Protein backbone atom coordinates (compact mmCIF):
# COMPACT_ATOMS: atom_id res chain seq x y z
CA UNK A 1 0.00 0.00 0.00
CA UNK A 2 1.17 3.54 -0.63
CA UNK A 3 1.26 5.49 2.66
CA UNK A 4 1.06 9.20 1.87
CA UNK A 5 1.29 10.58 5.41
CA UNK A 6 0.22 10.22 9.02
CA UNK A 7 -1.82 12.46 11.30
CA UNK A 8 -1.64 12.25 15.06
CA UNK A 9 -4.96 12.15 16.88
CA UNK A 10 -5.37 14.34 19.97
CA UNK A 11 -8.57 14.19 22.03
CA UNK A 12 -9.23 17.49 23.81
CA UNK A 13 -11.89 18.91 26.12
CA UNK A 14 -11.76 22.47 24.74
CA UNK A 15 -11.28 22.52 20.97
CA UNK A 16 -10.98 26.30 20.65
CA UNK A 17 -8.18 26.50 23.25
CA UNK A 18 -6.38 23.53 21.71
CA UNK A 19 -6.59 25.04 18.22
CA UNK A 20 -4.84 28.20 19.42
CA UNK A 21 -2.00 26.14 20.92
CA UNK A 22 -1.51 23.86 17.91
CA UNK A 23 -1.73 26.71 15.40
CA UNK A 24 1.04 28.45 17.32
CA UNK A 25 3.16 25.28 17.53
CA UNK A 26 2.76 24.27 13.87
CA UNK A 27 2.39 27.64 12.15
CA UNK A 28 -0.60 26.13 10.31
CA UNK A 29 -4.19 27.33 10.26
CA UNK A 30 -6.87 24.96 11.54
CA UNK A 31 -9.39 23.45 9.15
CA UNK A 32 -12.52 22.57 11.11
CA UNK A 33 -15.15 19.99 10.27
CA UNK A 34 -17.78 17.90 12.00
CA UNK A 35 -17.73 14.09 12.05
CA UNK A 36 -21.08 13.10 13.51
CA UNK A 37 -21.22 14.54 17.05
CA UNK A 38 -17.44 15.07 17.13
CA UNK A 39 -15.84 18.41 16.23
CA UNK A 40 -12.51 18.00 14.45
CA UNK A 41 -9.77 20.48 13.59
CA UNK A 42 -6.90 19.53 11.31
CA UNK A 43 -3.84 21.59 12.27
CA UNK A 44 -0.65 20.61 10.50
CA UNK A 45 -0.13 16.90 11.19
CA UNK A 46 -2.59 16.88 14.12
CA UNK A 47 -6.28 15.98 14.23
CA UNK A 48 -7.77 17.64 17.32
CA UNK A 49 -11.08 16.06 18.35
CA UNK A 50 -13.71 16.99 20.91
CA UNK A 51 -17.15 15.62 21.59
CA UNK A 52 -19.34 13.46 23.80
CA UNK A 53 -17.46 11.00 26.01
CA UNK A 54 -19.29 8.06 24.41
CA UNK A 55 -17.61 8.96 21.10
CA UNK A 56 -14.29 10.07 22.54
CA UNK A 57 -13.75 6.80 24.42
CA UNK A 58 -13.82 5.01 21.06
CA UNK A 59 -11.63 7.58 19.30
CA UNK A 60 -8.94 7.38 22.01
CA UNK A 61 -8.31 3.76 21.03
CA UNK A 62 -7.15 4.74 17.53
CA UNK A 63 -3.44 5.53 17.49
CA UNK A 64 -3.20 7.63 14.32
CA UNK A 65 -4.80 8.35 10.96
CA UNK A 66 -2.83 7.09 7.97
CA UNK A 67 -3.43 8.62 4.54
CA UNK A 68 -3.16 6.01 1.79
CA UNK A 69 -3.56 6.08 -1.95
CA UNK A 70 -6.35 3.49 -1.93
CA UNK A 71 -8.33 2.04 0.99
CA UNK A 72 -9.09 -1.14 -0.99
CA UNK A 73 -5.36 -1.76 -1.41
CA UNK A 74 -4.89 -1.15 2.32
CA UNK A 75 -7.55 -3.76 3.11
CA UNK A 76 -5.77 -6.34 0.96
CA UNK A 77 -2.38 -5.61 2.54
CA UNK A 78 -3.74 -5.51 6.09
CA UNK A 79 -5.59 -8.81 5.79
CA UNK A 80 -2.53 -10.41 4.13
CA UNK A 81 -0.46 -9.71 7.26
CA UNK A 82 -3.19 -10.86 9.68
CA UNK A 83 -4.82 -7.49 10.32
CA UNK A 84 -8.53 -7.21 11.05
CA UNK A 85 -10.88 -4.63 9.56
CA UNK A 86 -12.86 -3.24 12.49
CA UNK A 87 -15.03 -0.74 10.58
CA UNK A 88 -15.49 0.38 7.00
CA UNK A 89 -14.73 1.26 4.44
CA UNK A 90 -17.11 4.19 4.88
CA UNK A 91 -17.47 7.57 3.15
CA UNK A 92 -15.42 10.34 4.79
CA UNK A 93 -15.26 14.11 4.20
CA UNK A 94 -12.49 13.69 1.63
CA UNK A 95 -12.86 10.07 0.44
CA UNK A 96 -13.17 6.76 2.27
CA UNK A 97 -12.05 5.56 5.69
CA UNK A 98 -11.61 2.31 7.54
CA UNK A 99 -10.42 1.27 10.97
CA UNK A 100 -8.10 -1.73 11.28
CA UNK A 101 -6.49 -3.65 14.10
CA UNK A 102 -2.92 -4.73 13.37
CA UNK A 103 -1.78 -8.19 14.50
CA UNK A 104 -0.02 -6.57 17.50
CA UNK A 105 -3.34 -5.07 18.66
CA UNK A 106 -2.66 -1.48 17.55
CA UNK A 107 -5.65 0.25 15.97
CA UNK A 108 -5.29 2.73 13.11
CA UNK A 109 -7.62 4.65 10.83
CA UNK A 110 -6.79 4.54 7.12
CA UNK A 111 -8.20 7.20 4.79
CA UNK A 112 -7.97 7.85 1.05
CA UNK A 113 -9.17 10.60 -1.24
CA UNK A 114 -11.19 8.30 -3.50
CA UNK A 115 -14.92 9.02 -3.41
CA UNK A 116 -17.13 6.06 -2.54
From TrEMBL:
InterPro entries (alphabetical): Glyas_Bleomycin-R_OHBP_Dase, Glyas_Fos-R_dOase_dom, VOC_core
GO MF annotations in UniProt: lyase activity
Keyword Transmembrane: no
Pfam families named among the record's database cross-references: Glyoxalase (PF00903)
Keyword Transmembrane helix recorded: no
SUPFAM superfamilies xref list: Glyoxalase/Bleomycin resistance protein/Dihydroxybiphenyl dioxygenase
Keywords, ordered alphabetically: Lyase
Residue ranges constituting the VOC domain according to the UniProt record: 1-113
The protein's name in its UniProt record: Enzyme related to lactoylglutathione lyase
Amino acid sequence: MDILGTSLRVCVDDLDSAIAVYEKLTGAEAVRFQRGPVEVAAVGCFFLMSGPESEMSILRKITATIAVKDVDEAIADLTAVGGQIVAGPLPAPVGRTLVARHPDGSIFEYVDRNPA
